[in-house]
Amino acid sequence: APCNPEDSVLTLPWLYRFSEEICSPRHRLLCPMGEFPALALVPEACTDLADSRVLLMYEAIGRVMALALAHRIPLHPALPVWMARAVLEYPLTFHDLHEFSPQLFLRVESVLKHPNPEAFGLTFSEVIQRHGIVRRFEGPDGPVPVTLLNREQYATWLKGVYLNDSLETQLKYIRQGFFFTL
Description:
7 helices; disordered N terminus; mainly alpha; 4 strands; ubiquitin-protein transferase activity; HECT domain-containing protein; 182 residues; HECT_dom; 9% strand
């Protein structure tokens, strides 16, 4: 039984099992969407982040992560390291970007290594579409072209767009549940 009916105390195996439900792609609570994997509770939780019940689900994920940490039990290994680092508010690295999306990482790496990054025709502008919702991210001065002088800044900016800005609502509620529980 996942819960002791006598005192309603969650068992440690239940915490691991719940973390498996959250993290395992097999259970589709952490599921890929389109080109980039992102945190999504099925059926279609990302379509309505304004729904308070959906936000409570993200908060519950943070609470379970905190309970597991407090009891020194591992979360399911499918939990992405970049997401755990984001929840703990550690700075995210390009290694985290590789885990999030190898394709996006290769794009950034090619810009950083190419002798003429202007040839890619990239700008500080990114459009992310999920579930029919389009979000536009631009650099501080709009769509500035990527050049040899600003390509490192572009790489850092793009990492922030995908690992923080496009998931800020989900991460905010996961953090809220995590730190409230600890």
